[in-house]
Amino acid sequence: MALALQLRPHFPPLVSAPIPTARRCDLFSSPLGFAGTRGLGRMLPLSSPALRSFSARLDLSFSSSSATEAPVDGWGEGDPVTLVEFVGKGAGDDLALLFSHLQYASKRIAAVVASPFNAELGRRGKAPAGSASSGRDAPKPLDVVANEIILSSLRKSRKVAVMASEEDDAPIWIDDHGPFVMVTDPLDGSRNIDASIPTGTIFGIYKRLEELDHLPTEEKASLNSLQSGIHLVAAGYVLYSSATIFCISFGSGTHAFTLDHSTGEFVLTHPFIEVPRRGQIYSVNDARYFDWPEGLRQYIDTVRQGKGQFPKKYSARYICSLVADFHRTLMYGGIVMNPRNHLRLVYEANPLSYLMENAGGKGSDGKLKILSIQPVQLHQRLPLFLGSAEDMEELESYDHIQQKINPGYEV
């Protein structure tokens, strides 16, 4: 499918001069002339004190200590900050080039997802023999297409040594000299795409472990992909919905960019997202209530009656698309959870926990911090609880919130 949106073939040169303070408030504008910090319903006018405060914070480095900080020249008066410019300023040339290819891949996936022909593709989907995914998660052609789009973009970037995908049985070695490792769920929520429910791409980026370079390809590919979440250098997701949103973190803050269809650029609309310390929404499949352990049932009963630590009744919001439920939680607070051993540590739990923690929230399996868990298998599953710090602390104060059995339905 031909795309009208094309990636700019050349980027402005990187220089060391900072952006003048007087211009910064104008830089962080969305296509509509506003910038936001928590959600589309909480937009900040360009003249607001909060946005001026953010502008002053731009000089902070949000990358790992080894990254090269280099502000981007060429921003005209009133120009929005694009994704590639933002990454190039704070994370260095290698990540900037990698993200230029990732954003191109996300635009292609967004176009495929929005195509009038995708419903027929979904109905034809069958799981390949021996695939790592099965049952409800059996890959459909859209999953496969998204996977191939991402793999092709990573090959062209020459910046990724190995890609591990939820759709593949084993990691794919790409380039001996690539400095990064990428793990991904290429198209989360695709089984609901016939109903036009939002979908998303989830990814995490690690540094290649050079000390493993002497090992056979299959072994070093696997070990590089099994790094714990504390070693992430970047993570993100792309939400394909009424807007296409590219949300990223490099370890100091979580930031979201919205696709401006008039220019084909992702522009910064949600800088330094801060998830509220307490929300009023829980997101979980309530139909499984009677399968839950006693502790989780007690927590849900308590908060929805307004008898918890926060004296207001909680509401349930559940889309059954992880990226969509997570994005809403990031914007408005509360908790998104799946208490059974269902979500994958490498491809979903680690990247989303990294984003949530860098926005001031928490990620847990109900007992342990997600980022502290050492993966032992590429497709390892676990319970996942993500959300506002105070909500997470209250939830974890209950015993037995992990669902250990799955009666009546498959994992």
Task: Considering the chains and any ligands shown, give keywords for the structure.
fructose-bisphosphatase, hydrolase, 20% strand, alpha+beta, 8-stranded mixed sheet, globular, D-Maltodextrin-Binding Protein, domain 2, 2 domains, 5-stranded mixed sheet, 29% helix, FBPase_C_dom, 11 helices, fructose 1,6-bisphosphate 1-phosphatase activity, 411 residues, Fructose-1,6-Bisphosphatase, Chain A, domain 1, FBPase_N
How would you characterize the overall build of this protein?
- The chain has helices at residues 21-27, 49-57, 83-91, 93-113, 118-123, 141-157, 217-225, 294-304, 322-332, 345-357, 389-396, and strands at 34-36, 43-45, 160-165, 172-173, 180-188, 199-207, 234-240, 244-249, 254-260, 265-270, 281-283, 315-316, 335-344, 362-364, 381-387.
- Helix content is 29%, strand content 20%.
- The chain has two domains: 89-270, Fructose-1,6-Bisphosphatase, subunit A, domain 1 (Fructose-1,6-Bisphosphatase, Chain A, domain 1, 2-Layer Sandwich); 281-396, D-Maltodextrin-Binding Protein, domain 2.
- An eight-stranded mixed sheet has the order 4-3-5-6-7-8-9-10, with helices on both faces.
- The protein is α+β, with helices and mostly antiparallel strands and 411 residues long.
- It is built from eleven helices and 15 strands.
- Residues 92-271 form the Fructose-1-6-bisphosphatase class I N-terminal domain.
- InterPro entries: FBPase_C_dom, FBPase_class-1, FBPase_N, FBPtase.
- Belongs to the FBPase class 1 family.
